Amino acid sequence: MINVGIVGGTGYTGVELLRLLVLHPRVKIKAITSRSEAGINVADLFTNLRGHIDLKFSDPADAKLNKCDLVFFATPNGIAMQQAESLLQAGVKVIDLAADFRIKNIAEWEKWYGMQHACPTLITEAVYGLPEINRELVKNARLIANPGCYPTAVQLGFLPLIEAGIIDVNHLIADVKSGVSGAGRKAEIHTLLAEASDNFKAYGVPGHRHLPEIKQGLSNIAQKPVNLTFVPHLVPMIRGIHATLYAKLIQQVDLQALYEKRYQNEAFVDVLPAGKHPETRSVRGSNICRIAVHQPQNSDTVVVLSVTDNLVKGAAGQAIQNMNIMFDLPETLGINQVPLLP
Ligand SMILES: NC(=O)C1=CN([C@@H]2O[C@H](COP(=O)(O)OP(=O)(O)OC[C@H]3O[C@@H](n4cnc5c(N)ncnc54)[C@H](OP(=O)(O)O)[C@@H]3O)[C@@H](O)[C@H]2O)C=CC1
Ligand SMILES: CC(=O)N[C@@H](CCC(=O)OP(=O)(O)O)C(=O)O
């Protein structure tokens, strides 16, 4: 069994990790931390877990994390970087769901995240955990930077086009919508029911912190710098990411065949038949990214639609996918749930 610790067990990604891990046949959850709920039974706070878990939240300072085989950080940015080094030294693997180890250029990270990096020496070693690109590196990793929710949907959507070298990478556009759980469980005015429901707005247009992450990933695939306009939106739904991606074709190929071939061996990427439009509810609660590729009116513009559940393929599910790969388990173990409809 893999002995697992979760730091930040009361946030939305933390409780999603719990929902998936309590039924994972090769995992034993040893510790779940919360500063605000320390001493409280996990199943008293999250009643969906009643009958599945018999643990109390512990304060992060008291949790015996260095006795675990793996620790997930489901914490705000800037927390994992303070503890990763000592855990690795104790032989514990680390998966950070936040952004502490995602960006290789430290000055760039410090600019976007507004803090000094506490552990720059580990950035080179950290593996960006998008298995569809980095599976071989994930296998031997000790430290995983789990991708952001927007970056997962956008990178998987653009990937086949960039790998094939058939689009102009200087003018990429990602128009992306997120449900409000993407903002986390902490109280904030913009996620109040009266603010977020029956409303729809863009935000972060001058610059969102996922922009450098997506550009870094796409530039690695292209093996040259890419230019991207990224516009996130908040939509009145709870879960889900819907990315509409635009690029200019510089070469005509059978796009449907390209996407089907690229993802034919990927358990968690589903390419829809030609002409279809994926819906966020078709992936809700699952680790699947569903993609459709279109070339409207046979013009030179390709439009890709990519949907995920931000809390699963965009966070907890992808983190468990990485864990399965790191521990040489079947990649789908414990995370092949059928999406919830309606
Ligand atoms: N929501 C989403 O869709 C996605 C989120 N992420 C990232 O995952 C991480 C967690 O997100 P989410 O679950 O939404 O966040 P939440 O705000 O919902 O939860 C944060 C959790 O971290 C704990 N925490 C906060 N501060 C500290 C601290 N200083 N030390 C230890 N624990 C702390 C909180 O519990 P307590 O205060 O009681 O200790 C809480 O359990 C974030 O970095 C987020 O950006 C990534 C992809 C998608
Ligand atoms: C809707 C919403 O507010 N989304 C969050 C991003 C989601 C997130 O969790 O950011 P990381 O993946 O980098 O951790 C935002 O725009 O700040």
From TrEMBL:
Domain Semialdehyde dehydrogenase NAD-binding: 3-141
Compartmental location: Cytoplasm
Domain of life assignment: Bacteria
Keywords assigned by UniProt, alphabetized: Amino-acid biosynthesis, Arginine biosynthesis, Cytoplasm, NADP, Oxidoreductase
Coarse class of the protein's main subcellular location: cytoplasm
One Gene Ontology term, aspect cellular component: cytoplasm
Record GO terms (molecular function): N-acetyl-gamma-glutamyl-phosphate reductase activity; NAD binding; NADP+ binding
GO biological process, one term: L-arginine biosynthetic process
Pfam family, one: Semialdhyde_dh
Main enzyme class: oxidoreductase
Active site residues per record: C149
Pathway annotation: Amino-acid biosynthesis; L-arginine biosynthesis; N(2)-acetyl-L-ornithine from L-glutamate: step 3/4
Keyword check for Transferase: no
SMART domains registered for this protein in UniProt: Semialdhyde_dh
Keyword presence, Amino-acid biosynthesis: yes
Entries under PROSITE patterns matching the protein: ARGC
Catalytic activity: N-acetyl-L-glutamate 5-semialdehyde + phosphate + NADP(+) = N-acetyl-L-glutamyl 5-phosphate + NADPH + H(+)
E.C. designation(s): 1.2.1.38
Main function: Catalyzes the NADPH-dependent reduction of N-acetyl-5-glutamyl phosphate to yield N-acetyl-L-glutamate 5-semialdehyde.
Entry's family note: Belongs to the NAGSA dehydrogenase family. Type 1 subfamily.
Protein's UniProt name: N-acetyl-gamma-glutamyl-phosphate reductase
Organism: Nitrosomonas ureae
